[in-house]
Design brief:
single chain; mainly alpha; 491 residues
Length: 491
Amino acid sequence: MILDSIDISQLLSLLAFNRDEPMLFTSGLFWVLFLIFLPIYALLKSRRKKMMLFVIAFSLYFFYKSSGVFFLLLVVISIFDWWVAQFIESSKNRTERRIALTVSLVFSLSILLFFKYGNFVMFNLDALIGGNFQPMDLILPVGISFYTFRTISYVVDVYRGKIQPVDDYLDHLFFLSYFPCLVAGPIVRSCDFNPQVQANKPATREMIYGGLFLVMMGILKKAVFADYIAQYNNIAFGNPTGYTGFELLMAVLGFTMQIYCDFSGYSDMAIGLSSIMGFDLGINFNFPYRSLNVTEFWHRWHISLSTWLRDYVYIPLGGNRKGKVRQHFNLMVTMLLGGLWHGAAWTFVVWGAGHGIALCVHKLCKPWLDTIASTRLTRFASWLLTFCFVAFLWIFFRASTFQAAGQIITNIVTDFEWAYLPVFLERRSTWCIMLAIIFGLHFVPTRIWDNLRDRFIAAPWWLKLVIFIVLIQLVLQFASATVQPFLYSQF
């Protein structure tokens, strides 16, 4: 009896929220629960209402395990915005509709601003007026920026007449709480997702095994590549004064590949899990480091975010419809907000401003650039310039302070010697090999990746099992001492 009580208490403790160990896709507990979830989901799939209730319950528990009691915020926001959307649709008064939309935006954004930017605002006010500011002990609900952007897009699309509001509240709660998108996107829109829920088509064989392929690719990117190369990156960025320019440059290149593997790895898992469940979330990354200019980079990087910023910030500001000066102003505002969205620090604002300036410069130079012949040399030069610029701005994204970013840049410029290359290759050979593999795989033609996925789908079950076992062995082989959280889960 005592043993049973100990086991039950340990189980309850494992299933309860732990602030130091939020449940993410990298958590072993998640995969245990998902393996229990999946067959029940399959049995309920044909009964839409019961399936929705079951997925909502699982999603809210997943959010509870990630953010504790703050999962209730999502429920409150979903109720309020569902009601607002109903009101906007039913009202024929333009002023009433605008007021309702404004109230919805203020409500959602005020919650986001409080939890994500409250301390940032107070710290800057304290620095301006002088005082003794003590930061609030706030838990940042995991993925709050992602579900806030999703609910905003829903209400705005109803206001614009692009979509009809869902009559059943459960449909909206299902959309907003859907667990694959909850932690770090993609920022799926109701107009793309809800029709699939309404149709409730069963997952095809291609969707199930194609989804499994994506999940495995995501695990490989995140748990093998990103987590391993992050170990050196974290040390170097954490103490830039202790490393030479060459070592810091390698850390910058390492983080450039780490953040891609980390975030695109999460997106692969989210999209893959959804595919297994019968839902298509589209593409969120399209080999961004192949880009030949910054504009192309933002067409390939975090596509759901860049298109959201375009449709709900850039275009409402006027887009490119009000002249070149206004277009460049709109671009800068959009990218500044995009930078601040990523984190409550001025380093993120500089990162966004850098991309905004680059986008403006590219648009200004495009008429001249279009006259240059497209040769291998010019394409390589364009790619190299774009890649170096993007990698340079990642310094501000990753560095904790401007001082640290400045130290990294200074050391790279003033203390760089190729003589460190042989020593670095010898001491961090596995790290260098992984970095080279990530870089090389990024430039494998898309048709080969598609062919590889199709071959995996067509492969016999035993071969799929062997590939999965090899993947798990790689994860165990290169696992760090502690599970690394997804970088974008903090957003």
